Amino acid sequence: xxxxxxxxxxxxxxxxxxxxxxxxxxxxxxxxxxxxxxxxxxxxxxxxxxxxxxxxxxxxxxxxxxxxxxxxxxxxxxxxxxxxxxxxxxxxxxxxxxxxxxxxxxxxxxxxxxxxxxxxxxxxxxxxxxxxxxxxxxxxxxxxxxxxxxxx
Amino acid sequence: xxxxxxxxxxxxxxxxxxxxxxxxxxxxxxxxxxxxxxxxxxxxxxxxxxxxxxxxxxxxxxxxxxxxxxxxxx
Lengths: 152, 74
Fold this sequence. Notes:
- The complex is a heterodimer of chains A (152) and B (74).
- Chain A has one domain (23-152): Oxidized Rhodanese, domain 1 (3-Layer(aba) Sandwich), CATH 3.40.250.10.
- Chain A is 34% helix and 17% strand.
- Chain A has helices at residues 2-21, 36-44, 55-60, 74-78, 95-106, and strands at 23-24, 30-33, 48-51, 67-68, 87-90, 111-114, 144-149.
- Chain A is elongated and about 55 Å long.
- Chain B has helices at residues 2-11, 27-36, 63-71, and strands spanning 17-22, 43-47, 53-58.
- Chain B is globular, with a radius of gyration of 12 Å.
- The two termini of chain B are 22 Å apart.
- The mean pLDDT of chain B is 89.
């Protein structure tokens, strides 16, 4: 029974800690979760948007104005960035961007908007290419279904 | 989507070739996505036997929608 209580207390503490670290947008500094509208608002206020997906994913389409820094390069690349600047961080679904935000936070960045739903929730235009998929694909004489995906 | 796609791959194995392309790790997949103008993941592109793209579905899809697109390729 005591073990169960300890685990419950620990779970509540962890949830509370995460909620405080990634609290909803409310203005001012700090780490905030934002939606697509929040990304646009932050950009208009001068924030730098950072896409932490791979270069390949970035090439397929990214939020206009975003720079590409893959999550495994964020610590090295962000070392030279201005800590006083505001940043918006996103990936495909929010998993890699959590790691990137955590890294940046540990490096002393204090004003980060985290687009936690990822680019899949982006409602604006993407920078690159055309929306319509056209072209030809080599086949072995029977129809083909292509699935373009990522694991994260 | 992986379980759904794998299930469809088995169901349609004699009629449609399924190619799963990871744009995070496979540069050939990235090149093909760029060639076709694919912008989002997941994106499903349905190609006729003579190599012409006939239909595109973007985002999570239901099994019924996927089957309808695959059946239209027959």
